[in-house]
Amino acid sequence: MVTTADAVIIGAGIVGSSTALELSRRGVDVLVVDKAGGAGMRSTSASSAIIRFNHSTWEGVAASWESKFRWEEWEDYLGYRDLNGLARFHRCGKILLDVPFIPRERMTALFDRAGTPYEVWDADMLAKRVSGIDTGCFFPPKRVVSDEFFDDPHGHLGASYTPDGTVKSYVWDFGDGDTLGPGTTAAIQSPAHTFSAPSPTTTAGCKGGGYLVTFSAYDDDGGKASTTKCVVVT
Length: 234
Ligand SMILES: Cc1cc2nc3c(=O)[nH]c(=O)nc-3n(C[C@H](O)[C@H](O)[C@H](O)COP(=O)(O)OP(=O)(O)OC[C@H]3O[C@@H](n4cnc5c(N)ncnc54)[C@H](O)[C@@H]3O)c2cc1C
Description:
Blueprint: E1 7-10, H1 14-25, E2 30-33, H2 43-46, H3 58-72, H4 74-78, E3 94-97, H5 104-114, E4 119-121, H6 123-129, E5 159-162, E6 167-173, E7 179-183, H7 186-189, E8 211-219, E9 224-231
Parallel strand pairs: 1-2
Antiparallel strand pairs: 3-5, 4-5, 6-7, 6-8, 8-9
The chain binds flavin-adenine dinucleotide.
């Protein structure tokens, strides 16, 4: 049993574990103790695992922005290859809806200072970029058992978006043999396409028939995201 150490860290969450790793890399003999059954079992395991750059302090923004680069080379950073696969970083970007107690201008000033790319969206852009979202402002949160919970929204929300990576190209497959792209021009992002014949009544992926239209975006890190829609032409 270990009875001595140069440093004792109480708590083996992400903060205690990271501190222990960095201290031990500097040759410090570290002992980490935790009252839970293992490492990272409290807030750390509850995390949504998103690298959130939106913080109200410079230290928070700078640390999260720097951590993104560590996550991108996580195995190299740890110096460890796990055959079962370590936690991996999925590039996805993040949207923070406007809330009154997190002033957007304060965050964007810190993004400017750190060099963190961001976009500020109004409600129209939010609805365009996040299909199906209700942009109504229902703040503050209400108890579901209260009458106020069913109040109509007051005003509409914008958002700040921190993309991760950049789109290199878009490609369309209209399902009728025609394709468009790769490219990033406005004509490729929002193309006009004419189907020259009614859509087939049986199409794999389209219940009830239609043209299976596929839109794909490729980023600068080899990532790809696609979405499909069935278009019925009569
Ligand atoms: C639902 C949820 C979602 C989140 N999503 C995100 C996200 O997407 N992105 C993000 O960046 N952050 C997110 N967070 C925040 C993030 O999870 C925390 O900021 C982070 O995990 C805190 O790490 P920590 O090491 O300080 O705390 P913890 O992980 O809670 O670790 C503290 C450890 O200390 C131990 N401990 C406490 N007291 C004692 C004691 N007296 N003796 C011994 N051990 C003790 C506890 O058992 C625990 O293991 C989220 C948090 C929650 C709850």
